[in-house]
Amino acid sequence: MTKVSVFRAVTSVALFTFGVVTGLVAQTTGDSPPRVEQKRTDLTGAPDMEVIASMAEYKPGEGIELHIHHGIEAAYVLQGATVQIPGKGPMQLPTGATLMNLRDVKHAGFTIVGDTSRLCRKL
After folding, report:
1. Based on the domain organization, do 79 and 116 belong to the same domain?
2. Residue pLDDT, tens place only, 21-40
Protein backbone atom coordinates (compact mmCIF):
# COMPACT_ATOMS: atom_id res chain seq x y z
CA MET A 1 0.00 0.00 0.00
CA THR A 2 1.32 3.44 -0.84
CA LYS A 3 1.41 6.37 1.56
CA VAL A 4 -1.33 8.09 -0.43
CA SER A 5 -3.62 5.03 -0.13
CA VAL A 6 -3.01 4.77 3.61
CA PHE A 7 -3.64 8.51 4.05
CA ARG A 8 -6.92 8.27 2.11
CA ALA A 9 -8.05 5.25 4.12
CA VAL A 10 -7.26 6.92 7.46
CA THR A 11 -8.93 10.16 6.33
CA SER A 12 -12.05 8.28 5.21
CA VAL A 13 -12.34 6.43 8.52
CA ALA A 14 -11.82 9.67 10.47
CA LEU A 15 -14.49 11.52 8.46
CA PHE A 16 -16.95 8.65 8.83
CA THR A 17 -16.36 8.49 12.60
CA PHE A 18 -16.73 12.27 12.90
CA GLY A 19 -20.04 12.12 11.01
CA VAL A 20 -21.43 9.36 13.23
CA VAL A 21 -20.36 11.11 16.44
CA THR A 22 -21.77 14.45 15.23
CA GLY A 23 -25.12 12.79 14.45
CA LEU A 24 -25.31 11.13 17.85
CA VAL A 25 -24.43 14.31 19.73
CA ALA A 26 -26.89 16.40 17.70
CA GLN A 27 -29.66 13.88 18.32
CA THR A 28 -28.93 13.74 22.05
CA THR A 29 -28.50 17.47 22.70
CA GLY A 30 -31.61 18.38 20.72
CA ASP A 31 -33.85 16.13 22.75
CA SER A 32 -35.64 16.89 25.99
CA PRO A 33 -33.74 15.28 28.92
CA PRO A 34 -36.92 14.30 30.85
CA ARG A 35 -38.30 12.46 27.78
CA VAL A 36 -38.29 8.66 28.12
CA GLU A 37 -39.01 6.71 24.96
CA GLN A 38 -41.59 3.94 25.43
CA LYS A 39 -41.84 2.42 21.95
CA ARG A 40 -40.78 3.07 18.35
CA THR A 41 -42.09 1.58 15.10
CA ASP A 42 -42.03 2.29 11.36
CA LEU A 43 -44.87 4.40 9.96
CA THR A 44 -46.71 2.22 7.46
CA GLY A 45 -46.68 3.63 3.94
CA ALA A 46 -44.14 6.35 4.74
CA PRO A 47 -40.57 5.27 3.99
CA ASP A 48 -37.94 6.52 6.45
CA MET A 49 -40.58 7.71 8.96
CA GLU A 50 -41.29 6.40 12.46
CA VAL A 51 -43.89 6.71 15.17
CA ILE A 52 -42.37 7.21 18.62
CA ALA A 53 -44.28 7.00 21.91
CA SER A 54 -42.63 8.58 24.92
CA MET A 55 -43.38 10.13 28.28
CA ALA A 56 -41.97 13.30 29.80
CA GLU A 57 -42.38 14.84 33.23
CA TYR A 58 -41.52 18.50 33.87
CA LYS A 59 -41.33 20.03 37.33
CA PRO A 60 -41.99 23.67 38.29
CA GLY A 61 -39.10 25.84 37.12
CA GLU A 62 -38.25 23.47 34.25
CA GLY A 63 -39.13 24.25 30.70
CA ILE A 64 -39.25 23.06 27.15
CA GLU A 65 -37.14 25.11 24.76
CA LEU A 66 -38.59 26.41 21.51
CA HIS A 67 -37.93 23.64 18.97
CA ILE A 68 -39.15 21.79 15.86
CA HIS A 69 -39.62 18.16 14.81
CA HIS A 70 -39.20 16.74 11.34
CA GLY A 71 -42.51 14.94 11.72
CA ILE A 72 -45.88 15.52 13.38
CA GLU A 73 -45.93 15.43 17.18
CA ALA A 74 -49.06 14.55 19.15
CA ALA A 75 -49.22 14.86 22.94
CA TYR A 76 -51.73 14.09 25.66
CA VAL A 77 -51.51 15.93 28.99
CA LEU A 78 -51.65 13.45 31.89
CA GLN A 79 -51.53 16.09 34.63
CA GLY A 80 -52.15 19.73 33.86
CA ALA A 81 -49.82 22.55 34.76
CA THR A 82 -49.52 26.30 34.52
CA VAL A 83 -47.00 27.32 31.88
CA GLN A 84 -45.53 30.67 30.90
CA ILE A 85 -44.07 31.80 27.60
CA PRO A 86 -41.52 34.64 27.97
CA GLY A 87 -43.23 38.02 27.69
CA LYS A 88 -46.73 36.59 28.19
CA GLY A 89 -48.90 35.85 31.19
CA PRO A 90 -49.21 32.37 32.71
CA MET A 91 -51.73 30.03 31.06
CA GLN A 92 -53.24 26.72 32.04
CA LEU A 93 -52.38 23.53 30.14
CA PRO A 94 -55.25 21.37 31.45
CA THR A 95 -55.28 17.66 32.25
CA GLY A 96 -56.67 15.73 29.29
CA ALA A 97 -55.67 18.30 26.68
CA THR A 98 -54.39 17.00 23.36
CA LEU A 99 -51.78 18.86 21.38
CA MET A 100 -50.68 18.57 17.75
CA ASN A 101 -47.44 20.16 16.60
CA LEU A 102 -46.98 20.22 12.86
CA ARG A 103 -43.83 19.16 11.06
CA ASP A 104 -41.04 21.78 11.05
CA VAL A 105 -43.14 24.36 12.98
CA LYS A 106 -41.56 25.90 16.09
CA HIS A 107 -43.43 25.16 19.31
CA ALA A 108 -43.07 25.04 23.13
CA GLY A 109 -40.66 27.66 24.52
CA PHE A 110 -42.30 27.79 27.94
CA THR A 111 -41.54 27.22 31.63
CA ILE A 112 -43.67 25.34 34.17
CA VAL A 113 -44.73 27.91 36.78
CA GLY A 114 -47.45 26.04 38.68
CA ASP A 115 -47.12 23.57 41.50
CA THR A 116 -47.88 20.35 39.57
CA SER A 117 -45.16 18.30 37.95
CA ARG A 118 -46.29 15.72 35.41
CA LEU A 119 -46.99 17.55 32.18
CA CYS A 120 -47.47 15.31 29.16
CA ARG A 121 -47.22 12.01 27.40
CA LYS A 122 -46.25 12.26 23.79
CA LEU A 123 -47.91 9.85 21.39
Report:
1. yes
2. 333 333 444 567 778 888 88
Q: Which of 63, 62, 55 is nearest to 122 (CA)?
A: 55
Q: What's the CA gap between 86 and 26, in Å, rounded? A: 26
Spatial distance between the Cα atoms of 22 and 5, rounded to a whole number of angstroms: 26
For residue 76, the tally of other CB atoms under 10 A from its CB is 13
- Are residues 44 and 100 located together in one domain of the fold? yes
**Range(s) of the domain holding residue 20:** 1-30
**Quick one: which of 76, 70, 74 has its CA closest to 105?**
70
On whether both 111 and 61 belong to a single domain, the answer is: yes
How far apart are alpha carbons 111 and 88 in whole angstroms?
A: 11
- Provide the pLDDT for residue 52: 86
What backbone phi and psi angles, to 5 degrees, belong to 61? 95, -20
Is the same domain home to 15 and 75?
no
Closest listed residue to residue 91, CA positions, set 74, 121, 116, 112: 112
The total domain count for the chain is: 2
